Amino acid sequence: MNDQDKPGKDEATPPEAANDESGRRFDRATDATLEALQEALGGAHADEPRIAELEGQVADLTDRLLRTAAESDNIRRRTEKEKDDTRKYAVQKFAEDMLAVADNLARALESIPAEARENEQVRALAEGVALTGRELAGVLERHGVRPIDARGRRFDPNLHQAVYEVPTDEAEPGTVVQVLRDGYTISDRLLRAAMVGVAKAKD
Hints:
Layout: H1 15-89, H2 92-110, H3 120-142, E1 145-147, E2 160-167, E3 176-181, E4 184-186, E5 189-192, E6 194-200
Parallel strand pairs: 2-6
Antiparallel strand pairs: 1-4, 3-6, 4-5
Helix pairs in contact: 2-3
């Protein structure tokens, strides 16, 4: 065989052989891709228990945080209420003692006979006692202490203390017709019940 009959170095590879080689390369690349996907999927499945554990921890921490925030809010509101109550009722005992002074001033005025008030000195003394009583009432009111308006009202055991009953046709039974001692409230709390006489139907 002469040189002309031998295939040359530069002679092109047959198309069939080229297609076979390309197919093999494609198969190898596909296999590698599939292996990588399987490894990735296998790793994701392997991490599922860990992910579930972390999600559980997040849910638990979130629940604790919400409970702590709610408890803190309750404590804050309770503390504010206690402070407000302390401010409102801090003078309660002092106010109770001052009511006795107000009662004595009122009794002093009632004890002065009308004819004695014609005397200028007695009249001036009575006016001074009345002025002192009004100033005391103003001080008490500035601290939330207010008298209970009882006369003519329906008897209320939460505000009134019935001392006796008054047979009468001039008022509905159960109505306060006489006030023996004024009652007082401090803010929205009863400080002293009013001592009253209550109407009842005549026999």
